[in-house]
Design goal:
single chain; alpha+beta; 21 strands; about 20% helix; about 30% strand; binds flavin-adenine dinucleotide
Length: about 375
């Protein structure tokens, strides 16, 4: 008999949420390379829920996650994870667009000025997407890990998968400390390392590429910014949102191909972010309080990958969550769990065709 029924590689939000869905039904172990599970992308996000982000198929998962994030079951959390903020998509030229199913409307320049005082005159068009909200990522990730453990799941931190091999329907995984673990199902939820983990297990890579994104926390000479909407450029050059009375989180919307690593911000990207920010508002930049970077990992078609590899028995992909891996989590975990367990899907995702996200699309 194997040590576990399912071995999940990666304790970020992808592995934790899928683990939380299956732990009551399968003996499940999460192995996480780092000392704590939120060390990589999950702990570095911009933490918003934006329905228009990622295109129509990602929006299926984003929309299906909203109810859970807003009012989770009482035994999961005693409060919701969203804080409504709204988003302004701004443009110097054409009207910004969002997918047809997303609620948004055009607002006149005077309304834009009231919402973003000090906005420069050449930003002439704006679309308001009121549903945009902040997500309490740390609380959500912790709640998934708590549910996982309560259902009998085990989390092993400081436990990096080094290699894996499958024989007679059982995966044997070698960990960095020299120990081995066995399970018939191996879930690859290794974020930026998804292709590396596949390779270490003798499974063909899917072409999941990590891309670095930079975030900068600025103190500015303008007060009253705490509830500033998320402001983003229709041409994808920046976004920023209020984080404190005189504080914003800003990104230059960079997407720099890199090897999987402990990502760090580059000075040039911080400078670019500030330059673009100063082209939007006349608020004096007083200090860069901190900056950080994280990796957003994309499959070749920029859709996430949930499902069994068609060539490697028992190897399940849970990867490629790009820049939407938090906002899609509740629905994605339920959809992935139904495929993994070969069970009918939860009602919240019953109208989403799992084939859209299957790795079979790359065969
Ligand atoms: C700057 C930035 C802003 C973002 N903003 C948003 C946002 O506003 N909204 C949103 O929804 N999403 C956002 N995202 C995307 C989101 O953060 C990711 O999609 C999500 O965190 C991916 O989760 P994950 O669990 O797949 O990855 P991770 O959190 O990176 O987890 C993968 C884990 O696998 C572990 N691992 C890797 N290799 C091994 C191994 N060999 N053995 C054991 N463990 C291993 C790693 O240590 C890591 O902890 C943003 C991302 C970035 C970088």
């Amino acid at each position: 008999m194997s040590d576990f029924d399912v071995l999940i590689v990666g304790g970020g939000i992808a592995g934790a949420s899928l683990g939380a869905e299956i732990a009551a039904k399968r003996r499940t172990l999460i192995v996480e390379a780092e000392a704590h599970c939120g060390y990589h992308s999950t702990g570095r996000s911009a933490a918003f829920w934006l329905e228009s982000y990622g295109g129509e198929q990602v929006a299926l998962l984003t929309s299906a996650s909203r109810a859970f994030l807003e009012s989770p079951p009482a035994d999961f959390s005693d409060r919701g994870f969203l804080h409504e903020r709204g988003a302004l998509h701004i443009s110097e030229g054409e009207w910004p667009e969002v997918p047809p199913n997303v609620t948004a409307w055009r607002i006149p320049r005077d309304e834009l000025e009231a919402m973003v005082p000090g906005i420069r005159p050449h930003w002439i068009k704006a679309l308001l997407e009121p549903g945009c909200a902040d997500i309490d990522v740390a609380a959500l990730h912790s709640a998934f890990l708590r549910r996982f453990r309560q259902a009998g799941g085990i989390v092993a931190t400081d436990s990096r998968l080094i290699e894996g091999a499958q024989a007679n329907g059982i995966w044997t995984v070698g960990l960095a400390d020299g120990s081995t673990v066995t399970a018939p199902i191996l879930v690859n939820a290794a974020g930026a390392w998804a292709d590396s983990v596949a390779q270490a297990c003798g499974v063909e890579r899917l072409g999941i590429e990590p891309k670095r994104r930079t975030m900068v926390q600025l103190r500015v000479g303008r007060a009253g910014l705490r509830d500033l909407p998320l402001v983003d450029d229709a041409d994808g050059r920046f976004y920023f949102k209020g984080e404190g009375d005189q504080m914003v989180w800003l990104s230059p919307h960079d997407e720099i191909a890199t090897d999987p690593c402990d990502a760090a911000p580059e000075e040039i990207d911080v400078a670019t972010a500030i330059d673009r920010f100063e082209s939007v508002v006349d608020w004096p930049v007083e200090a860069v309080e901190r900056s950080w970077a994280g990796l957003r990992s994309f499959a070749p078609d920029r859709l996430p990958v949930y499902g069994y590899d068609s060539r490697a028995r028992g190897f399940f992909w849970c990867a490629g969550q790009g820049g939407f891996g938090i906002q899609t989590t509740p629905a994605a975990a339920r959809l992935a769990a139904a495929v993994l367990l070969d069970e009918p899907p939860d009602a919240a995702v019953a109208n989403i065709d799992p084939a859209i996200f299957s790795p079979a699309r790359f065969d």
